[in-house]
C-alpha cells in the first residue's frame, strides 16, 4: 500500500534519509524505531510528502505520489491522516471546530459535516467535549481530538509521529487503545514512529529499525497488547519494582 523506492532526503549537506526502500502493508500497524536523529520522523513525513524527497518515489495504493501535483496530490493526501507529538490543535478553535477543519478544506458536503464531526468525536469518546477549547483538555484528550480530526476525511492510512511521547503511562495506554481501535474497527493502516520500545511492542505487527538515515532491518513481531498501569500510586510502585525497572530507595 505504501511503498518507498530508494527515497532520500538531505538537509543541506546532511543526509537525513539515505536511499530507503520500504513497504507498509495494508491493514498493518507498522512501527519505526531508532536512536534520536536516525531519520524516523523525516521518513514518516516523506510518506505523505510533508518532506519532498530529493530522490526516489513514494507510491500509495499503486499511485506515484511523487509524480502528482495540485488537485491530484491534494486528493491523494486526503487518504493519509497524520497526528503529532504536540497534537497541533488550533488553540482558538473548539474541539468541534478543530475536527470540522479538514472537512471544510476538502469541501465535504456542508449538510453532512455535523454528523461526520460527531461520528469522529464519538469514536474517540469525546462528544461531550465538543465545545471545549484545547487548553481545557488533558494531553490524552488533546491527542484523541487530533485522532478524530485525522479520521474526518476517512483516511486509509494514519501516520503517527511520536503520538505518546508527551503523555504519562496511563494516558499512553488510552491513546494506544484508540489507535488499535482505529486499525481494527476501521481497517486503517497505521505507521507509528516512536522511540519508546514498550509502545512499539504493544501494538505493532512489523517494525522497521532505522540507524543513521538507513533501514537497519524490518522485523515481524507479535503485539503484546496494551498494558494499563493502575493509577493508584501504590500499585504504580509495585508494578515498577516487580518489573525490576527500579529498586526500593
Ligand atoms: N528541517 C530540517 N532542517 C535541517 N535538519 C533537519 C530537519 N529535519 C530534520 N533534520 C535533521 O535530520 C536528522 C534526522 O531527523 P529526524 O527528526 O528525522 O530524526 P528522528 O530519528 O525522528 O529523531 P528524534 O527521535 O530525535 O526526533 C536529525 O539530525 C535532524 O537534526
Count of separate structural domains: 1
Figure out the total of helices: 8
Q: How do the strands line up in the largest sheet?
A: 6-7-8-3-9-10
First-to-last CA distance: 50 Å
Main structural class: alpha/beta
CATH topology: Rossmann fold
What is the overall shape? globular
Largest sheet: 6 strands, mixed
What is the residue-averaged pLDDT? Answer: 92
Organism: Sporosarcina thermotolerans
Pfam families: ABC_tran
InterPro entries: AAA+_ATPase, ABC_transporter-like_ATP-bd, ABC_transporter-like_CS, MetN_ABC_transporter-like, P-loop_NTPase
Domain ABC transporter: 2-237
Descriptive account of the structure:
The protein has one domain: Rossmann fold. The mean pLDDT is 92. The protein has a 6-stranded mixed beta sheet with strand order 6-7-8-3-9-10, sandwiched between helices. It has a 4-stranded antiparallel beta sheet with strand order 2-1-4-5, with helices on one face. With 249 residues, the protein is α/β, with parallel strands linked by helices. The chain has helices spanning 40-47, 70-77, 95-105, 110-123, 139-151, 169-186, 197-203, 233-242; strands spanning 2-11, 14-24, 29-34, 55-60, 63-64, 80-83, 157-161, 189-193, 206-211, 214-220. The protein binds adenosine-5'-triphosphate. Adenosine-5'-triphosphate binds next to helix 1.
Characteristic key phrases:
single chain; 249 residues; alpha/beta; Rossmann fold; 6-stranded mixed beta sheet; 4-stranded antiparallel beta sheet; 36% helix; binds adenosine-5'-triphosphate
Amino acid at each position: 500500500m505504501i511503498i518507498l523506492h530508494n527515497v532520500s532526503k538531505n538537509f543541506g549537506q546532511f543526509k537525513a534519509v539515505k536511499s530507503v526502500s520500504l513497504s507498509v502493508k495494508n491493514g498493518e500497524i507498522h512501527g519505526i524505531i531508532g536512536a534520536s536523529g536516525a531519520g524516523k520522523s523525516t521518513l514518516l513525513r516523506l510518506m505523505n510528502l510533508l518532506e519532498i524527497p530529493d530522490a526516489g518515489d513514494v507510491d500509495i495504493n499503486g499511485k506515484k505520489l511523487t509524480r502528482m501535483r495540485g488537485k491530484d496530490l491534494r486528493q491523494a493526501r486526503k487518504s493519509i491522516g497524520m497526528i503529532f507529538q504536540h497534537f497541533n490543535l488550533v488553540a482558538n478553535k473548539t474541539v468541534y471546530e478543530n475536527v470540522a477543519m479538514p472537512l471544510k478544506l476538502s469541501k465535504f458536503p456542508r449538510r453532512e459535516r455535523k454528523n461526520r464531526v460527531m461520528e469522529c468525536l464519538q469514536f474517540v469518546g469525546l462528544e461531550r467535549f465538543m465545545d471545549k477549547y484545547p487548553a481545557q483538555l488533558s494531553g490524552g484528550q488533546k491527542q484523541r481530538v487530533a485522532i478524530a480530526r485525522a479520521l474526518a476525511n476517512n483516511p486509509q492510512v494514519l501516520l503517527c509521529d511520536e503520538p505518546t511521547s508527551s503523555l504519562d503511562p496511563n494516558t499512553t495506554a488510552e491513546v494506544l487503545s484508540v489507535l488499535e481501535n482505529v486499525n481494527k474497527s476501521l481497517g486503517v493502516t497505521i505507521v507509528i514512529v516512536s522511540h519508546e520500545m514498550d509502545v512499539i511492542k504493544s501494538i505493532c505487527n512489523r517494525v522497521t529499525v532505522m540507524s543513521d538515515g538507513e533501514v537497519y532491518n524490518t522485523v515481524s513481531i507479535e503485539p503484546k497488547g496494551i498494558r494499563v498501569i493502575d493509577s493508584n500510586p501504590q500499585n504504580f510502585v509495585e508494578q515498577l519494582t516487580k518489573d525490576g525497572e527500579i529498586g526500593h530507595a
